[in-house]
Amino acid sequence: METMLAQHSTANLRRLAFACRDAPPRGIISTVRRIVLASTSPYRRQLLERFGIPFDVRGPDGVDERSVELPARELVTTLARMKAEAVASLEANAVIIGSDQVAVLDGDILTKPGTSERACAQLQRLAGRTHELLTAVCVIDTATGEHQGHVDVHRIRLRALTEADIQSYVAQERPLDCAGSYKVEGLGISLMDEISGVDFTAIVGLPLIALRRMLHNAGVSVPGETP
Fold first, then answer.
1. Which of 25, 75, 139, 140 is the most exposed place for a label (fewest CB within 10 A)?
2. Distance (Å, rounded) from C-alpha 59 to C-alpha 49?
3. Which of 139, 23, 136 shows the shortest CA–CA distance to 79?
């Protein structure tokens, strides 16, 4: 009997040793659930990488941003949700992140310029004036169907810019895929006079402070936080 008990205890200790060896460090996600960024934007991908959690990228196919006409806040909220829903319909037991961004001046919505000419035209309008930059994020838990949404608003004032300033900037940084036609994380910061807001990462494309809370609500912890 004592021999059998000793063998049983040894087996248990071996199993425990293997479990401890294979267990992930505290604060790292230990789940088979996927996190999917519903965006092909390199800026959003780089921002999400800051959390140090594994995730996949999947483009939100079928979302026609130009077909949606709404006031700015409703527009970014709707498009962020549409992007997340487009990917959520293809993923089971996953946490999906969708986002969208627009700039607003005098009630006019400024989206991605797409061309150098439009980028220069946007910066000419924004120069020396204050505008708002709205960044929305939507998180969908496909296991529960729960939706979470958040809109971050920054007030940004550009300094006075000459036509030469604008043309030089656009030629150097090519901000053709950025609402407002500037990259504040790069040379675009030189265009700024004043920035007022809560989360600087939102200007780049994804409000990480709010997103961390939303992921936590969906049961996803980032390194350094208790699951």
1. 25
2. 17
3. 136
Report how far apart, in Å, the C-alpha atoms of 60 and of each of 24, 32, 44 are: 31, 22, 14
Contacts of 74 (CB under 8 A, 6+ apart): none
Structure tokens at 61: 């196919």
C-alpha–C-alpha distance, residues 144 and 96, integer Å: 12
Sign of CA dihedral 111, 112, 117, 120: positive
Residues 49-71 pLDDT 10s: 999 999 999 999 878 777 788 99
163-219 tens-digit pLDDT: 999 999 999 999 999 999 999 999 999 999 999 999 999 999 999 999 999 999 999
- Which residues are marked as active site? 100
Alpha-carbon span 154 to 151, nearest angstrom: 10
Q: How many angstroms separate the Cα of 167 from the Cα of each of 124, 127, 145, 171, 213?
A: 10, 13, 47, 6, 40
Amino acid at the residue 141: D
pTM of the model as a whole: 0.82
Tally of CB atoms within 10 A around 66: 6
Query: What domains are defined for the chain?
Result: 34-217 (3.90.950.10)
Which residue is associated with the tokens 């969906």? 218
